[in-house]
Specification:
By secondary structure, this protein is α+β, with helices and mostly antiparallel strands. It has 8 helices and 15 strands. A hairpin with a 5-residue loop joins strand 8 and strand 9. The C terminus is likely disordered. Bound molecules: 2,5-anhydro-1,6-di-O-phosphono-D-mannitol and magnesium ion. The site of 2,5-anhydro-1,6-di-O-phosphono-D-mannitol (AHM) has 12 residues, from strand 5.
Length: about 350
């Protein structure tokens, strides 16, 4: 019998979040209310994504975001939906998005606001027009002691290990939301018939080793040596078996497969882009928290992603994330960095 039909009790994401919250004595329910804003936005975004070819929502918006990238109409729609869904929650003080240069200060400026939410509303948006999976990533941070509304950056410039919760939604052949509040990783599939996210992947654990590596190999010649050695080993079978490659070009979709099937996903530094392409706060951090919660790990090639102290809301970072066996081998290949000699730097000066 199919899961969710009959024998297995049907658990919606709302119930699950409430259950999780009971672990914290004195919890007020604000956090659940906040997460419900994200699930509401995800439903709205998925509805638009599903009808994208039918409405006038495909294509560019004739504008560029803070990174100089052309914004797609769906990027902007998704951004607005998330901002709207979250800005009415009093517990949220600051929202920061890939699509906005500066964090948004919630007009209520409530003294009881406890959280900042950072997100990439629609990741992998170059895939939208060709009907390939895209996603939303989010990270929730607690307001630091003494942080006020005059200094919104302080709310969000925190290392990823301080995330209260993190997750993503992948708009694939079905819409799946995966989240963690630091107590395991759980996945929910949207049942379009009833409009509810239903628990479909409980307590996800990444396999110890996988069969796939996932990287944009077109840039291979520009990767640092240790990445090339690592890829060669994966291909040749030195790590127990030869790997196959899978690369969608939507981080959320590539990571979702890595989470469920194991293996490694990477966006390495390149000669031209020493920090790679992915953004630390709203792309790498949530993915790293999920990976660690599922038994995997994530690094920038020098340190644990979750230990990086961010200096800029939109800063980029290389990201290598995956299963235990692959990540261990990758770590062995890295030369310890020494700022004096330049040894182990991605590209020695
Ligand atoms: P975006 O936030 O502008 O959509 O870019 C991020 C995406 C990731 O989803 C994906 O991993 C990466 O860009 C793909 O980049 P590339 O085309 O260089 O391989
Ligand atoms: Mg993105």
């Amino acid at each position: 019998m199919e899961k969710g039909q009959g024998e297995t009790p049907l658990i919606t994401i709302a119930q699950h979040i409430l259950q999780e919250q009971r672990r914290f004595p004195g919890a007020t329910g604000e956090f659940s209310f906040l997460l419900s804003g994200i699930t509401l936005a995800a439903k709205q975004i998925q509805a638009k994504v599903r009808r994208a070819g039918l409405t006038d929502i495909l294509g560019d918006q004739d504008s560029a975001n803070v990174h100089g990238e052309v914004q797609q109409k769906l990027d902007l729609y998704s951004n607005e939906v998330l901002l709207r869904a979250l800005s009415f929650r009093e517990s949220v003080g600051i929202l920061a998005s890939e699509e906005n240069e500066h964090p948004a200060i919630m007009p209520h400026k409530s003294p009881v606001a406890k959280y900042a939410v950072v997100f990439d509303p629609l990741d992998g948006s170059s895939n939208i027009d060709v009907n390939v999976s895209v996603g939303t990533t989010f990270s929730i941070l607690r307001r630091p002691e003494g942080a006020d509304f005059d200094d919104p950056a302080r709310w969000v410039l925190q290392p990823g290990r301080r995330q209260m919760a993190a997750g993503y939604v992948v708009y694939g052949s079905s819409t799946v939301m995966v989240y963690t509040v630091g107590n395991g990783v759980h996945g929910f599939t949207l049942d379009p018939a009833v409009g509810a996210f239903v628990l479909s992947h409980e307590n996800i654990k990444m396999p110890d080793q996988g069969k796939y590596y996932s990287v944009n190999e077109a840039y291979r010649d520009n990767f640092p040596d240790e990445y090339i050695t690592f890829l060669n080993e994966l291909r040749s079978g030195e790590l127990n078996h030869p790997y196959a490659s899978r690369y969608i070009g939507s981080m959320v979709a590539d990571f979702h497969r890595t989470l469920l099937r194991g293996g490694v996903f990477m966006y390495p530094p390149t000669r031209d882009f020493a920090q790679g392409k992915l953004r630390l706060l709203y792309e790498a951090n949530p993915i790293a928290m999920l990976a660690e919660q599922a038994g995997g790990s994530a690094t920038d090639g020098r340190q644990r992603i979750l230990d990086i102290q961010p200096e800029d809301i939109h800063q980029r970072t290389p990201l290598i994330v995956g299963s235990r066996v692959e990540m261990q081998r990758f770590a062995e290949l890295l030369v310890p960095a020494s700022p004096d000699t330049g040894q182990g730097m991605a590209f020695p000066p």
